[in-house]
């Protein structure tokens, strides 16, 4: 943990200014922003962009190691995020494909949690159109104040799980249901 801390598994901060990613355990240093702990146990490590540093519209960037998604038919990026702070602008996922960064493949704008103890939220990003991507990066845009800590934890690239069926409506019987031998008609959808 610390300034910026040791990033594992080939992840590298790539910010050009003072607004950058840090490795942390426990709460962030700025009050009224950031999580109280990591997503997994509450006691482990996570990465976050520290809103106390830099200037408005600065970018904190965290770049993945080289990716090999050749074994995945429909790749998916999953990660947990915590975006508590009134000055949060956005968190973006970008993809390096064919030597060019494709910005804003997935964007989460503004404050998403309203307390440091609020649960982390899950993001699931389809990378189906980017199966030959070389890297991904997380990019956070700093707001005008210090309450802009954006945290990320438990990043995973995997095969997109198969679609599940969901019940949309019961078509018949229209009212009442008893233990007779009447047929029940339902409407389902793959989600």
Total E-strand runs: 12
Alpha carbon gap, first and last residue? 40 Å
Which structural class do the helices and strands define?
mainly beta
Described by the principal axes of the CA atoms, the overall outline is globular
What is the overall pLDDT average? Answer: 90
Commentary on this structure:
The structure is a single chain. This protein is an all-beta fold. The protein is 0% helix and 42% strand. The strands form three sheets. It has a five-stranded antiparallel β-sheet, with no helix packed on it. A hairpin with a 2-residue loop joins β6 (90-97) and β7 (100-109). It is globular and about 70 Å long.
Which SSEs are present, and which pair or pack?
Blueprint: E1 12-13, E2 21-25, E3 45-49, E4 59-63, E5 75-82, E6 90-97, E7 100-109, E8 121-126, E9 135-141, E10 150-159, E11 165-172, E12 185-190
Antiparallel strand pairs: 1-4, 2-3, 3-10, 4-9, 5-8, 5-10, 6-7, 6-9, 11-12
Structural features:
191 residues; mainly beta
Can you describe this structure in just a few lines?
The chain is built from no helices and twelve strands. The strands form three sheets. It has a five-stranded antiparallel β-sheet with strand order 1-4-9-6-7, with no helix packed on it. A five-stranded antiparallel β-sheet has the order 2-3-10-5-8, with no helix packed on it. By secondary structure, it is mainly beta.
């Amino acid at each position: 943990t610390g300034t910026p801390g040791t990033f594992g598994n080939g992840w590298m901060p790539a910010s050009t200014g003072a607004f950058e990613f840090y490795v942390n355990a426990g709460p962030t240093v700025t009050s009224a922003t950031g999580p109280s702990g990591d997503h997994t146990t509450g006691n482990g490590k996570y990465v976050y962009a520290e809103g106390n540093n830099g200037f408005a519209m600065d970018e904190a960037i965290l770049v993945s190691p080289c990716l090999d998604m050749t074994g995945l038919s429909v790749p998916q990026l999953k990660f947990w995020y915590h975006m508590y702070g009134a000055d949060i602008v956005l968190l973006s996922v970008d993809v390096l494909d064919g030597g060019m960064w494709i910005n804003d493949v997935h964007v989460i704008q503004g404050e998403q949690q309203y307390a440091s103890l609020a649960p982390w939220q899950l993001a699931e990003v389809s990378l189906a159109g980017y199966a030959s991507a070389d890297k991904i990066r997380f990019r956070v845009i700093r707001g005008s104040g210090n309450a802009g800590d954006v945290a990320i934890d438990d990043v995973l690239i995997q095969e997109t799980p198969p679609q599940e069926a969901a019940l949309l409506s019961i078509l018949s019987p229209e009212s009442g249901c008893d233990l007779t031998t009447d047929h029940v008609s339902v409407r389902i959808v793959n989600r």
